[in-house]
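Try it yourself: sequence plus pyridoxal-5'-phosphate, in.
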Amino acid sequence: MIKISQPLIYQEEKKAALAVLNSGRLAQGPQVARLEKKFAKLCGTKYAVATCSGTAALHTTLYALGLGPGDEMITTPFSFIATANAILMVGARPVFVDIDPKTFNINPEKIKKAITRQTRAILAVNLYGQPADYKKINKIAKKYKLFVIEDAAQSINASLGGRKSGNLGESSCFSLYATKNITSGEGGLITTHNKNYYKRARLFRNHGQKENIPYQYQDLGFNYRMTEIQAALALEQLKKLNKITKRRQAIAKRYNQAFKKVKGLLVPYQAPDRTHVYHQYTLRITKEFKRSRDGLKKYLEKKGIEVKIYYPKPLHLYPHFQKFGYKKGDFPVAEKASQAVLSIPVHPLLREKEINYIIKTITKI
Ligand SMILES: *Cc1c(COP(=O)(O)O)cnc(C)c1O
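Structure, out:
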């Protein structure tokens, strides 16, 4: 079976993890601090805060920005559940806005209509590895005095107009989960320019405790700390990030060339001002294709190619969002996309033979 994702763990990662195990210091410490410094540099932001997961990074960011009950947050219904759950975690109300059918990201043209007096923030997601349209999003946010938050879990090393993902809003959240472009098994990072939010995020991550002053709780907090083992792994992975990104982009280019000629297949659209880091390579299967989306999925699995649907159901249709009054038909573009998308393997461990096999298997249909 050709896997849809595989972590790239080499000798350097193993050595780094072992060195931490031998050091006697396992919980948050100097490795975490080093990672934060390197990560802020990568994104071009003043600060970075490491957490134990991307979900923890989202929750921490929303708390640090002071979002809570009574506030409305605009977001996309076409994402991983953690995006919208983070809004619920701080007690705010998620207000979904439909997506752009080409990029699968939130449609900025539809944001204005969703703004009310309670709206405080826009949480955009850079789905599959391509930044949302922050030029338009930031313009709206400025006019209505809203925070812009990037869910950058899938877009590490991507950019928009020369600015790195992580530096496109007030604060951004990354994930180092095992399937992400770089990984520490589990892990997350927050970036921001704002010293106040940075301080609040650091407190929230560690029970509201000021660092090096135990039992002085300044505020509510969690245990969202990253371990030294995770940080050591992430530091090694960061060194390989450019190589990993380039490889994903090169495989995507091969796929684009092969699949754009196939009737009924739409290859990923890349906006002219953005770089796409292809966390996923996602095809849209239209009615003109020989097989249905689900039929194609079954066929490729039978042929030994693991493929996945990201995401099979838009977020507004899950039970715990029903209390906000959402129903089928509210976001037709996202609903249609969830019926038509299929992601195929694009990770750097794919061999030439496997890439050719995937191309041949699909184009032959
Ligand atoms: C992976 C992911 C998250 C959550 O990250 P975890 O590290 O798994 O908690 C949030 N949002 C998006 C878009 C993701 O892809």
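One thing you can check immediately is this: The longest strand covers residues 119-125.
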